[in-house]
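In this section we walk through a basic example: taking a raw amino acid sequence and producing a predicted 3D structure, encoded as C-alpha cells. The instruction is simple. Fold the sequence below.
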Amino acid sequence: MKHNKSIIIKTFDLSTLMATKIMAILHRKWEKTDKKGKTIVKVKGRDYFDLMWYLKKGVSPNIKCIKGIEDREKLKKHLLTIVNNIDLQSIQLDLEQFIGNEIFVKKLSKSIKDIIMSEIQMKL
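The resulting C-alpha cell sequence is shown next.
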C-alpha cells in the first residue's frame, strides 16, 4: 500500500521468463555500431548469460510461450544452431557493461558457448 492505495503487480514464473529470453535469442535483431557505422557487437551477451543462468538452475522453458516452436526437440535444435554460431567477442563486449570483473568476463566469454551447448543437450 502506498498513499492508501493498493496495486496488483503481474509477475511471470521462471518457466515463462525463460521462454521470453529464448524468444529474444531466437528473434532479436540487434547490433551495436561504432561511430563509422561498423558493427562491433552482433548480439546481446546478456541474453546468453541469462539463458545460461536459467539452464544452470534447471528451469524448464514454457514451450507454449515460444512462437514457432512446438516441442522441445525443435527448440533444442534451434538453440544449438544459434549458440554454435554466436560471436564470442560480441558476448564479451556486451557483458563488460554489466559485470565489473573484467577477468571473469573474458574467461566466461571464451567458454559460454560450450557451457550453454552442454546445458542445452543435458537439460532440454
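Looking at the output, two observations stand out. The two ends are 41 Å apart (CA to CA). The chain has one domain: 32-123. In the next section we compare this with other chains.
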